[in-house]
Design goal:
Chain lengths: 457, 1039
């Protein structure tokens, strides 16, 4: 069982913060790079607004098309000019195809039928709402030479964002560091003062005489002679070691912080954090079942059919990510692992049927004798996933945030009020019980949430 | 004070020359202790590098390493679906309606599945017919995960491919086309419209195909009698709810008589309503489950039953019936008077394996115009034809059969003339057996076609005319198996699946435009247009009956004559089936093996039941030995020259003198694990497919060790455990007289026990408060709740040896008590009248007498599970607070907290706590379903599997109540009455067990608690249980 501790990242954060802080001042001027890039797209497009085209493309086409790559539909880079050259078809053909592709197929258009057959007879959705102007814009975008990634600017922009984000988060550490510095200075000063005083004394001829030590019994002998003290110390030591032994034993089997290496490096940070995917989109059974459910691979493919590579945030990976090896290529590689597991043939955009189920390493392991039901907590009580699972949206590597001990469960049940609003089930019992206990809101414990049999059967 | 006494160690010392004595004087042991054997030879020992210190080092190191390693948790893998099936949410159960039709059990049921694997059988409550699962059907889920199942087709014991097998059969069929040799299909009863159609098509396609239906336990007599009268091979359906008087001649209709399924209707009629309940008179030889429930039971041999039946017919008919006058003449008079008085509300049934008896019963019911008697929509659950089977065997022996294909039958085990069959089988060119398990028949045939379990199959049944049900697979085939019908379709050259075939059949002739998907979801379909259809048929049947009757006067007369002249010659054997084992199809099912017979309370065995007087005559006995087990003598049974050499004996109160009983279904050897090879094969004595045989019986040496769960037979006059009264008293007297609250002494004053309390009571008026009601009137003791509890709560099977040590783990037991006098009432009176220690009414001898059950006792059943006492004695004594009380009334048990002092079990007045003496899972010593991965698939994932050293007990299915509550919370609604269930309450088709929330004033359970019949078990102990019982009322009103 390999554990990747997460706590000692403090030091890293501290280090990065300092570096970022130093860089911060120099990175402001790179902000206008993006605008210059878009200007270049517009310039290349000729007829049509490539910027608007890009927006339209992402909105309407990107689910099935990419610029330089076959997906559900063909690659679209320079589609207009290619059609012109290879097939002799003009923009008019494209207009009518996009507005009503199935109509064209029915009408017997040769090239339309060819395309239709080539792509698994999956008819393209008709976009009657797109005006010719819109289509021109999109074509302009597809015709624009894909801009080279503005790599030069990336590092600084990323780190500036980073440092901005971190500044508030790590201020405690800075204060601490400052304090340490101050203390260090004080010590140095003290030593200096001492030295100076001695020098003054020497200069003024005062001999600082060390008191002559009387012949005393050594302290350890005195200690050994005092039986009461020995007894006291022994008791203290025994109690102390018992305390620590107890503490150590109580953490046996508590895997807080357990962060195993998974067969596919799945980043909750990217999915739940960067892309803000709702937890229960993937862990859907948490709503109705005792299990939150590790999503089946077909759920992954809902998105990853079209997201075939990781491009990260537009600015590229941060220095920290690069240090950890979390490059775009790395993430794209992990997506390929998914494809392999689910049996997705990227080339032909088809399932091969040869799947290899992913053997995830289970992180949260409740013992068999404890019954836990997600839906009770998620659906009925409306508790945020993060309450128990921690800031998942920030976890590059998923780890066990809570201790999952009984004491931890009980504490929460003691403190948490039952969510009774709008739930007809609770109406009667809450009215009666809260009256009996003389409280406004019942805690889970007051409703019987501490009874053994509620979780152990 | 010195003594000169010499103490002898043993008798041998008397002989001064005894060598052993001499040897013992010199040495400690007679023989040299074989030290060398376990220390090996000295040479290797001295040359080895491992000396004692090294050894200690190794031990020390490995112990340290092991304990260090134990601190690190294991890596647990979690593997999600690649593509999640649409209907599956991990952790949420799905229910599918299906049907069991294995040739013996037919019922519409629901299957609970978790993550795609079936884990529990539930009753299909919307089924109008056959919606109740008995103990065997409840247990059938485990047979799906039987590790001894056949895993693929075989040829001569070697695995082959289905293609090869199919090609062989097809080629043979082609070859036999036009030849004089027959292709014989010998199958179970299907009662399936689609299979009937399929077999019909097969018959058309191959003219030389013959189809023979074979029931291991035959209902041929009843079928033939029905056929003679109504022209159709079927069984009458009875609705016992409509009968005010039930007279049964040896018909065990609560159990398996004529396919069973009658207990629910019977029980509904047995609950006193408006001062009325049905009266049940049973005349029988064996003490059956049905007899045990009767108001009046007359023990008589089968031959006497026949005479009495004939005389009864005469009395009712007004004709005089000859025959020998007997001791029962008075009883016949009373019975006839009772029946006449009841008129059309009376019904007479018989389980005698005799066409005449069955015909007479049909005639009587017809004569009475019995309301409970339904011939217009008969049942089809038995079709077996003895004549055809015998004909087939004759054909086989004569070499007239070219191919024999069997499905769902095991004739080499269950045929009385199995040796003839075997002889014939050798002359058959091609023999194929479709079977789920390796058995006597698969061992003998050439090709074995591994067939599906019913939970992996498609199918349909018509249990009763007009009432159809569908069988759908609830899991994909676990092994390389196929069902017979799929293969048969291939023989027809059809590439249709059996599913499509059924759908086609239903669309064409059953659904009549109704929705197929709805029918499949419901699992049952009753034709609405039945009335039209039935009318036509009714007319047909009545017409044919009328026609038959004209000519039937003579046959009935001759039937009566032959019945009346039945003579008895010596001992008579009645073969029967146990509700736990049936015809033995599920002999490899550990739940059913460990299921105690409701009457004898013996598990893991069958045995000869014998009356006490016959036992004394024969010199056979049952003794309870010191380790708490019961032992029994062996006898040898001989029927028509066929003997069973060593059959253990159980002395059965209520067994008719001069008769013995023996159950089917045991004595299987082939294909079973050693633990499951229990009992003796009664089919060997099933001469001529008649359950009634004359038998000679002799004692043989040896003692049999039984695994009996209840050694104590009587109540010893303690009427407060099972409270009883008669209908008359119940109707006329105040409940304080027949349902007395026990009095206790407080400050030298007699006060009701319910008013005294050691503890302050908690306020339980808020929230749910669960109670369970058990009506002793409707409980028949059938035991399906016991198996349902097993399945729901992962109760382990412990095996015969452990049961014998009273270490059975059943959370729910059904206690059975016999009266010592003729009735329990007389027991109570006798005890109350004890006067002094000795003398006529002395308690010393009196209590001794009370221990002995009467020769024809009253019987009472009482399901007992944890009573969930509000003032529980177990809770106060647990040193670690492992058992505590919930505010919903449940007595909770935290297994992980239990340290196994067993103090609670000692302090429990109801003895419902069970201790895990061993680890019952993953333990080769207990090689039952929890010891293999396949068998473990049946485990309920919501309930713990307990480990060694902890106490366990009924939890009132807290996992189910919690689930119901959670569902309601999630939907944000109030819980309706009837939503709460336990495994036992939902398994109880007779409605004896009702579960619910008494804080819901409008609920059924709250109403039941207010009933006059309500009482608590051992009320004077003051435990305030949350389980209550209803006083048993017996209808003793004669005429």
């Amino acid at each position: 069982m390999k554990k990747v501790p997460y706590r000692n990242q403090f030091s890293k954060i501290l280090g990065f913060t300092l570096i970022a802080f130093l860089l911060f001042t120099g990175s402001v001027q790179s902000q206008d790079d993006v605008t210059s890039e878009s200007a270049s797209i517009e310039a290349a497009a000729g007829g049509g607004d490539a910027i608007n085209g890009k927006a339209l493309f992402n909105q309407n086409c990107a689910a099935c098309h990419a610029l330089n790559r076959k997906m559900t539909g063909p690659a679209l880079a320079n589609v207009a000019s290619r059609l012109e050259e290879e097939e002799g078809l003009g923009k008019e053909w494209l207009y009518s195809w996009i507005n009503n592709s199935s109509g064209m197929i029915k009408s017997g258009d040769a090239y339309a039928n060819k395309i239709y057959a080539e792509y698994n007879q999956a008819a393209m959705t008709a976009f009657p709402t797109l005006s010719n102007g819109d289509i021109d814009d999109i074509l302009a975008y597809t015709a624009a030479a894909p801009a080279a990634a503005p790599t030069a600017a990336v590092g600084t922009v990323e780190s500036s964002a980073n440092s901005a984000g971190n500044l508030s988060g790590v201020s405690n550490e800075i204060i601490l560091a400052a304090l340490v510095l101050v203390f260090g200075l004080l010590v140095v000063m003290l030593l200096l003062v001492n030295k100076t005083l001695q020098r003054i004394a020497a200069a003024s001829g005062i001999v600082v005489e060390k008191e002559k030590a009387e012949k005393r019994t050594p302290i350890w002998k005195a200690f050994a002679k005092n039986q009461f003290l020995v007894l006291l110390t022994t008791i203290f030591l025994l109690l102390g070691s018992a305390y620590f032994a107890y503490g150590w034993m109580m953490q046996v089997g508590v895997d807080q912080g357990y962060a195993p290496i998974q067969p596919i490096h799945y980043s909750h940070k990217i999915h739940a954090g960067d892309n803000k995917i709702e937890c229960k989109y993937c862990h859907s059974s948490a709503r109705v079942s005792k299990h939150s459910g590790i999503p089946s691979l077909n759920v992954c493919m809902n998105c990853h059919k079209s997201i075939y590579e990781y491009t990260g945030n537009p600015e590229g990976p941060s220095k920290e990510d690069i240090e950890n090896g979390y490059t775009n290529e790395f993430y794209t590689g992990e997506i390929k692992k998914l494809y392999k597991a689910v049996g997705w043939d990227e080339e032909n955009q088809k399932y091969t049927g040869e799947s290899q189920p992913v053997e995830w390493v289970r992180i949260h392991n409740l013992p068999d004798f404890a019954y836990f039901n997600h839906s009770q907590h998620v659906s009925v009580a409306g508790i945020e996933c993060q309450t128990c699972h921690g800031p998942v949206e920030e976890m590059e590597i998923m780890y066990q945030y809570s201790p999952l001990t009984m004491g931890w469960c009980i504490d929460c049940h003691r403190e948490t009020n039952v969510k009774v609003e709008g739930n007809a089930y609770y109406e009667k019992i809450h009215a009666e019980l809260s009256k009996k206990y003389g409280v406004d809101n019942l805690t889970a414990a007051q409703l019987g949430g501490l009874e053994c049999g509620k979780c152990h059967y | 004070m010195a003594s000169n006494k010499k103490y002898w160690k043993n008798e041998a010392e008397l002989n001064p020359d005894d060598s052993i004595v001499e040897a013992l004087r010199q040495n400690e042991f007679v023989e040299q202790i074989p030290v060398d054997d376990f220390l090996g030879d000295k040479e290797t020992l001295s040359t080895t590098n491992t000396n004692r210190r090294d050894f200690l080092k190794y031990v020390g190191f490995s112990t340290a390493a092991a304990s260090l390693a134990a601190c690190e948790g294991p890596v647990i893998k979690s593997i999600p679906y690649v593509v999640l099936p649409e209907n599956i949410v991990p952790g949420v159960a799905n229910f599918y309606a299906t049907t069991i039709a294995n040739g013996y059990d037919f019922a519409s049921i629901l299957i609970k599945t978790r993550e795609g694997r079936p884990i529990k059988v539930e009753n299909n409550t919307i089924a109008k017919v056959g919606g109740a699962a008995n103990a065997r059907i409840q247990g059938s889920i485990l047979s799906l995960y039987d590790s001894t199942r056949l895993q693929g087709p075989m040829a001569n014991g070697e695995p082959i491919e289905w293609d090869v097998l199919n090609a062989t059969i097809k080629a043979k069929m082609e070859e036999l086309k036009g030849s004089s040799k027959k292709i014989a299909l010998m199958t179970q009863t299907y009662a399936s419209p689609s299979t009937d159609r399929l077999l019909g098509e097969l018959l058309v396609a191959n003219e030389n195909v013959v189809h023979v239906t074979y029931d291991a336990i035959s209902e041929d007599a009843a079928l033939t009698a029905f056929e003679n009268k109504y022209g159709q091979r079927a069984l009458v359906d009875y609705d016992f709810e409509k009968a005010s008087l039930i007279v049964s001649f040896g018909a065990d209709f609560i159990a398996d008589w004529q396919g069973g399924g009658y207990d629910a209707g019977y029980s509904r009629g047995r609950v006193p309503k408006n001062g009325k309940m049905s009266r049940h008179v049973q005349l029988e030889a064996n003490m059956s489950l049905t007899g045990a429930n009767a108001d009046k039971r007359i023990a008589m041999k089968p031959s006497a039953q026949k005479v009495v039946l004939a005389k009864l017919y005469g009395k009712l008919n007004g004709s005089s019936v000859g025959g020998n006058s007997s001791e029962y003449d008075a009883a016949v008079d009373t019975l006839a008077a009772e029946i006449k008085k009841a008129g059309s509300s009376a019904v007479v049934v018989t389980g005698l394996d005799d066409v005449n008896a069955q015909a007479v019963v049909l005639a009587i019911n017809e004569m009475l115009g019995s309301k409970a008697f339904d011939v217009t929509a008969p049942k089809y659950t038995r079709k077996g034809d003895v004549k055809a089977v015998n004909g087939l065997i004759a054909d086989m022996k004569a070499g007239r059969v070219g191919a024999l294909i069997m499905d769902g039958v095991n004739p080499l085990y269950s045929l009385p003339n199995a040796s003839d069959f075997k002889e014939g089988l050798e002359k058959v060119d091609l023999s194929v057996a479709f079977s789920t398990n390796w058995n006597d028949t698969t061992e003998a045939v050439e090709y074995v076609a591994a067939s599906n379990h019913y939970l992996e199959s498609w199918g349909d049944t018509q249990i009763k005319k007009g009432h159809y049900s569908l069988m759908q697979p609830t899991i994909k085939e676990l092994f390389d198996t196929k069902q017979f019908q799929t293969v048969a379709l291939e023989w027809l050259g059809s590439n249709q699946t059996y599913y499509d075939y059924i759908k086609q059949t239903w669309a064409a002739s059953i659904l009549n435009g109704a929705n197929w998907n709805q029918a499949l979801q419901d699992g049952v379909f009753s034709a609405d247009t039945m009335s039209v259809d039935a009318e036509g048929n009714t007319q047909d049947i009545v017409a044919s009956a009328n026609a038959a009757e004209a000519s039937a006067i003579v046959p009935i007369a001759s039937a009566i004559r032959s019945l009346a002249n039945t003579t008895s010659d010596g001992m008579e054997l009645t073969l029967y089936s146990k509700i736990g084992m049936g015809d033995g199809q599920q002999a490899s099912n550990p739940w059913l093996q460990e299921f105690p017979d409701p009457i004898s309370r013996v598990s893991w065995d069958n045995y000869v039941t014998i009356s006490k007087s016959d036992a004394i005559e024969l010199g056979v006995e049952n003794v309870n030995v010191a380790n708490g087990g019961m032992d029994g003598s062996y006898v040898k049974l001989t029927v028509n020259g066929v003997s069973l050499d060593q059959v253990p004996v159980v002395v059965q109160p209520g067994q008719a003198k001069g008769s013995v009983g023996l159950s089917f279904g045991y004595g299987k050897k082939v294909g079973l694990k050693e633990d499951m090879q229990t009992g003796v094969n009664a089919f060997l004595l099933y001469d001529g497919f008649s359950a009634n045989q004359s038998v000679s019986i002799e004692k043989v040496t040896g003692n049999h060790e039984f695994a009996c769960m209840q050694l104590h037979k009587t109540l010893m006059g303690r009427g407060d455990i099972i409270k009883e009264t008669t209908l008359e008293i119940f109707n006329t007297k105040n409940h304080s007289e027949w349902n007395e609250v026990p009095m206790v002494s407080l400050d030298h004053q007699e006060v009701p026990a319910t008013s005294v309390d050691l503890w302050d009571s908690f306020d339980r008026s808020i929230g749910h408060h669960f109670n369970m009601s058990i009506d002793l009137n409707s409980c028949t003791g059938c035991g399906s709740c016991v198996i349902a509890c097993h399945a729901e709560n992962n109760v382990p099977v412990v095996g015969k040896a452990e049961v014998r040590k009273s270490r059975d783990m059943h959370w729910l037991r059904i206690d059975r008590y016999y009266s010592s006098e003729e009735t329990f009432e007389q027991d109570n009176t006798k005890k109350d009248e004890f006067d002094g220690l000795t003398g006529d009414k002395g308690s010393l001898s009196g209590f001794g007498e009370l221990e002995d059950p009467s020769s024809n006792p009253q019987v009472a059943f009482q399901p007992v599970m944890c009573q969930h006492c509000n003032h529980a004695p177990c809770e106060t004594v647990c040193p670690v607070a492992a058992t505590s009380h919930g505010r919903q009334g449940q007595n909770q048990m935290a297994y992980n907290r239990c340290v196994g002092t067993r103090y609670c079990a000692n302090n429990c007045p109801y003895k419902v706590r069970r201790f895990n003496w061993f680890l019952y899972n993953n333990n080769d010593e207990f090689d039952f379903h929890m010891n293999n991965d396949l068998g473990k698939m049946v485990l309920n994932p919501d309930v713990n599997v307990r480990s060694r050293g902890v106490i366990e007990k009924c939890s009132m299915c807290i996992q189910k109540t919690q689930k119901t509550i959670l569902d309601a919370k999630r939907d944000g609604r109030v819980i309706e009455d009837g939503e709460f269930h336990t495994a036992c309450s939902s398994a109880c088709s007779s409605g004896a067990i009702v579960f619910g929330d008494i804080n819901d004033e409008k609920s059924e359970i709250a109403e039941l608690k207010e009933s006059d019949r309500m009482y608590h078990l051992l009320e004077h102990v003051g435990t305030k249980p949350n389980v209550f019982y209803h006083v048993k009322v017996r209808n003793t009103n004669e005429a």
